[in-house]
Amino acid sequence: MSNFSEFSGRAILAHDDSGEAAVSRAGFNATAAFMEVLFQGSNSAVCQDHDNKDLFGVDLQGKILCVPQTIGSSAAATLWMIIVERGIAPMAVLFADPIDSVAACGLVLANNWADGAPIICIDQLGHEFLDKVHTGDKVDIFEDGKIKVYH
Amino acid sequence: MKETDFELTPEEQAIMDGEQGEVLQRVMNTVVTYGKLMGATRLIDLQAAPHLALSWSTDGFYPFIKIFKELADAGLKTYAPFTSNPKAMDHDNLDPGEAKRAIMNEAHSHDALLTGIYEKLGMVKNAWSCASFLPEIGNTPKYGEYISWTESSAINFANSVLGARTNRNSMGIDMMTAILGKAPYFGLMTDEGRQATWLIDCRLNKLPHPQLIGAAIGLKVVEDVPYVIGMDEMVNKLDDPIGYLKDLGTATASNGAVGLFHMENVTPEAKNHGRDLLAEGYQTYVIDDAELERLYNSYPVLWPDPDARPTRVFIGCPHNTLAQLKWWSGRILKGLKDAGQDRVACTPYIFVSDAVKAQFQLESPQLADEACDAGIHITRNCPVVYMQTPGYDDEMIITNSNKSRAYSKARFYMDDDLVEIVLTGELPDKAPAGQS
Question: For residue range B134-184, what is the model confidence (pLDDT) as tens digits?
């Protein structure tokens, strides 16, 4: 049987699902990550943020994005909207910290105004969660905000 | 989602109940949902005018343009005339050449639509600048006033340098709060949220590049509030502390997520309250010259050929102050004179609002003429958006902005090196370690 770790956070928008983790130990700059989607008509969710040593070049479409919080430009909300509308968004964003205001704007707007599948969002999972989870790990998500990380 | 109790006034409840139409009801519902998520329990009336971030009109922004059109079509207007970020195009002053002009025009195909929508919603005519808080445009909130802005650099300036109160909102929510004239009350709007949880102890031998020390602070504290000590004597001696603080704050926001910083004896709340702004249990980060050098040397080179000749030099992101425009023009002209040159070898573009450019031409006509004759361009363009246009990958751009560096392949240089590049068209012999 696989080893796993369990964590519990605040379910902002969640349902039961599972997928593969993509982990950023540093704050995730959504604007830098998806700049080409905004300005160059790209339909790729490959992370373009050259300052993000964990995720630069990693395709985030359909992944479970695990971050402490997001950083950077306040333009980020539009990114969450457009990647949802284009069907290239991560399946979920799991925050170790409480969700930051820019990400909250983006996810509220994306999940209420965009035409597309909403992004699962859980915050306040704690820093031990980020210590344990690694890119490529299988993660189960539950609608009450609990998650299981398989090692 | 576990919802907090959220108190609405009778007027707000009526909007929430749809008594003023479905569109406004949806706007109120979105703003309240955002507020609940962030732990707010009520809305607060906004005071100074709005500033919005959306000024670009590629397909990537169309979802928001569509929403804004819906608001305008419903006859809604913002509570006060608003300003917005700079547009992507200024072909007269930053000409990418015929083929690229066409690409840019095609990429920003919704420009006329967005401009028309903004006029209906209440925008100030031609107030396209990320530094609309400067006196030349005059969207300058007063100390303590509540606002609900976007544009991370403008938010940081309004909170830190002006002492106004706004959270780090994002596009879309800015317009919705501007339509309502109300925003959720939490975070940086509250006294508690403005307490510093980091003491930044600067032990530096000279005044650092504002966008380098800003980046160092942003990377360390991420979204927390820092209280900076050890810089006041240097900053207060500057001719243009406003420009310096604007640039420092910008880098804290773009390389981290800082919405507010305090600087001892410099920023207004630090002057009023001193170290009482430090929260119990704050952490300390010491910054010395070696720490900044380490960071500068860590930046990756993203040019396909690291030794390529630079094609343009971009000065200012965000838009420069009038004093910065004068300083850079004078500095480059002095370099040319000292080198016995008439014209620059690599064209510099100084980014400012139209209003700042007009004031420059009014106050310093001779300097403006000399700058123009020497090949210095002054443009209202957004540099980051310019660099993100499809087909512009062959542009090898140098910048003095760590924000531009973070969002593009541009290379970030210190001011003296940048002037050398403008004069010679070549990269300096001694490049930073990480950039060699």
Answer: 999 999 999 999 999 999 999 999 999 999 999 999 889 999 999 999 999
Which of the listed residues B189, B207, B238 is the one where a domain comes to its end? B189
Range(s) of the domain holding residue B245: 194-297
Question: Measured between CA atoms, how close is B298 to chain A, in angstroms?
Answer: 10
ipTM, two decimals, is: 0.88
Query: Which CATH number belongs to the domain containing residue A28 in this structure?
Result: 3.50.30.10
| Stated length of chain B | 436
Instruction: Count other C-beta atoms under 10 Å from residue B363's C-beta.
Output: 11
Distances (CA, A) of B366 to B320, B357, B361, B415, B422: 19, 14, 8, 24, 21
Distance in angstroms (rounded) separating the CA atoms of residues B405 and B305: 17
| Whether B45 contacts B182, CB under 8 Å | yes
- Domain match, B54 and B129 both: yes
Domain tally, chain B: 3
Average pLDDT over residues A77-82: 86
Residue holding tokens 């004597």?
A: B233
Is the Cβ of B99 closer than 8 Å to some Cβ of chain A?
A: no
Q: Inter-chain contact B37–A71, Cβ cutoff 8 Å?
A: no
Tokens of B29: 């519902």
Helix, strand, coil proportions of chain A in percent (round to 5)? Answer: 25, 30, 45
Instruction: Give the type of residue at B340.
Output: G
Which is nearest to B376 in space by CA: B411, B409, B414, B333?
B333
Would you call B30 and A73 a contact, using CB atoms and an 8 Å cutoff?
A: no
The shortest CB-CB distance from A109 to any of B62, B172, B254 is to: B172
Distance CA A58, CA B132 (A): 37
B372 within a domain of the structure (yes/no): yes
- The partner residue sitting opposite A74, judged by closest CB among B169, B218, B219, is B169
- Chain A window 62-121: which residues touch B at a Cβ cutoff of 8 Å? 68-79, 81-82, 85, 99-102, 104-106, 108-109, 112-114
Maximum separation of any 2 CA atoms in chain A, in Å? 46
pLDDT of residue B3: 53
Residues near A95 by beta carbon (within 8 Å), at least 6 away in sequence: A9, A67, A68, A69, A103, A121, A122, A123, A124, A125
Q: What percent of chain B has pLDDT over 70?
A: 97
Range with the lowest mean pLDDT among A45-54, A121-130, B248-257, B424-433?
Answer: B424-433
For residues B148 and B46, the answer to whether their CB atoms sit within 8 Å is yes
Cβ contact, residue pair B172, A77, below 8 Å: yes
In the predicted model, is pLDDT for residue B432 greater than 90? no
Min Cα–Cα distance to chain A from B171, Å: 6
| Optimal mutation site among B2, B25, B170, B225, interface A, most CBs of chain A within 10 A | B170
> Which 290-349 residues of chain B touch chain A by CB within 8 A?
300, 302
Q: Which residue of B has its CA nearest to A144?
A: B1
Helix ranges (H only) for chain A are 30-33, 35-39, 76-85, 101-113, 127-132
Look at residue A2 and tell me whether its pLDDT is greater than 90: no
Selection from A48, A120, A129 nearest residue A89 by Cα: A120
**Does an H or E element contain A89, and which?**
none
